[in-house]
Amino acid sequence: GGLGDVLGGLPPAMAANGHRVMTISPRYDQYKDAWDTEVTVELKVGDKTETVRFFHCYKRGVDRVFVDHPLFLEKVWGKTASKIYGPTAGVDFKDNQLRFSLLCQAALVAPRVLNLNSSKYFSGPYGEEVVFIANDWHTALLPCYLKAIYKPKGIYKTAKVAFCIHNIAYQGRFAFADFALLNLPNEFKSSFDFIDGYDKPVKGRKINWMKAGILESDKVLTVSPYYAKELVSSVDKGVELDDIIRKTRIQGIVNGMDVQEWNPLTDKYTTVKYDASTVADAKPLLKEALQAEVGLPVDRDIPVIGFIGRLEE
């Protein structure tokens, strides 16, 4: 969805502006271009120590890094028919907290341990002078681990975290007792503490990952200036985090688009290619082709309105 589009398009745009950019995501599949770096690290997740491997590819100026672990790959890879976040739509995997704790910890290790030399402009590990952009609740533990594990040791002294909200409706609410799974000091408890009126996943007091992400990050962002206003406008629109966001403040930066991907001169899905000078001639032809394809009356003078939005209850 939207997050996928942003992670596809924003990093190459940042790289084109001269930044060294790495994305870190779970390895849900055997991505054909991503190779095993053979770098492994051990991370404490719940009451176990897990080993993760990093896979890597370099595309359009961006280091694409994938965190390899059975928690990610075995659930989804080709054969299980599972979804990324659960066995079926609307159902969570029971170990989601452990999975995303693993992702957050791996993301903090990667800039220091991966010796990447793909670009002629940059070589070696990224080091500690970095900004982390954490997206949605799954990455909300990152600023917490940064403060709990690294900063006390003098590591990542100047590193900052921007937390970006793509969809406020999904917050990572779990049973309050589950705080123990996260291996965070008790002083973080208040950042997670949350009470709502719902019985899912348990009644009453909960932990809320997104609340902690908002409170523990250096800056809170969202996907448009309008959405930023909407999130603080009411309890409904901010899905009960409106007061927290009002306190931390939020900045809306409109989602851009990837002009390489969405280029009408090279678009493989259209029969007629066009640019700014030929758009007036091409659009009526493309409109007729679309009308024919979807079974509408073919008439180049009728307006066709397209709507892109969330389809959910």
TrEMBL record:
Keywords noted in UniProt: Glycosyltransferase, Starch biosynthesis, Transferase
Metabolic or biological pathway: Glycan biosynthesis; starch biosynthesis
Molecular function via GO: glycosyltransferase activity
Top-level taxonomic group: Eukaryota
Residues of the Starch synthase catalytic domain: 1-246
GO biological process: starch biosynthetic process
Protein name: Granule-bound starch synthase
Origin species: Chaenomeles speciosa
